[in-house]
UniProtKB/TrEMBL annotation:
This is Uncharacterized protein. Residues 1-25 form the signal peptide. Keywords: Signal. It comes from the Bacteria.
Amino acid sequence: MKRRNFISVAALAAAALASTGVASAAQAAPKKKLTASTVLNLPQGAETGISRAQIFDSLVPDPSVYAGKNVAYIWGSGSPTPPAGTVSSRYLPLVRDFGWTVRPLTWWQANHPDWVLYLADGVTPAYLGTGKSVPLDMDNPLVREWYWDNQIQPAIDQGYTLIALDNVVPWNWLHAKGRYDATGAWVDMYTGDLDDPAYTTTVLNWLEYLVNRLHSVGVAAAGNVSPLGVNPYERTASAAAVNLVDLWLHEGGFTRSRDANIADDEWSQTFQLYRSVVKTKPVVDISMTTTPHLADADQKQVDWIIANYFLVRERDTLLTLAGRNEYGMFLDRSELYLNIGKAMCDPQLTASGAWTRNYQQGLVLVNPSSTLTATVTLPTGNWVDTHGNPYTGTITLPTISGAVLTRV
């Protein structure tokens, strides 16, 4: 179990947003910061091999299954007391009430009708998809206090030292438009568009406020900052959110959040964001396969996921390999025991367009292009991939593919 010194990232968020004209969260955030000696409880990965994260544990009846598996972190654990060597966290959505089964929309309309965010029609709450967790106005100081007293403080009282904040999306994917005030009059707050500076400011201000307040009581914040967006505005705002949390969980991974392997510019931007933070904080890469169950996954996609993990990996980079939305149970697969020693350098771009990275006992290769194969000259000697296929001299990577080679 690891304890890590906290370093403020407000300045990083401000700098990132300034380049696109997005209002800075740092301008309105609380000024209280932790001292350099204050520590937070964060997961620590292994020096070599694949460090793993468990996403929810409701279907793991015996936590001893983690023993010897390099499982360093449990996102959304049912217990604040994790197995030895792991860190657990309490799940909460960032801008919604998690207690929708006891506080449905009718409860909010009866008790706090001016706290609920709606779509442009003024009738439909800005729900996430088909969910029923009521979206709240996080600009309201009273809402913030309610959120802390009813969702954060009970988790701290149970013993959790890490809060797992879900759906940390600093662009308006809820299409929220406004709310009603105490008199029942409509208050127009946002445009309702995805790229909405006012909404971005709300989310980043709220996130920084919450992270700072958690730090003031020695509790860390993990954030599921994904999807990352499809344009510079959305990706810059997402990067600012990544910089604010203590642990970044990326549910998209390198498989576009379960739909397909990412490629080209999308891959490049994702890769760059990973590399910009993996040396400074824990990162959880959730790469889901396109099949419902990991056991039925296409081997090429699994190879792609593993190669990308080793390409971006630092000590506290964790991997979750799962089928499509296959959460809650412990999943195992032989590739997760691959160990090629320590990285000998940062990732390198080759003339072919492929990326490589040398390890003590292997070589990692990734071709992110969707249109071009990539032929890479190998270091002298004989090499073999994880399936026993031999290579000497060169290796040609198909489009959107990855490989891990070891010397023989």
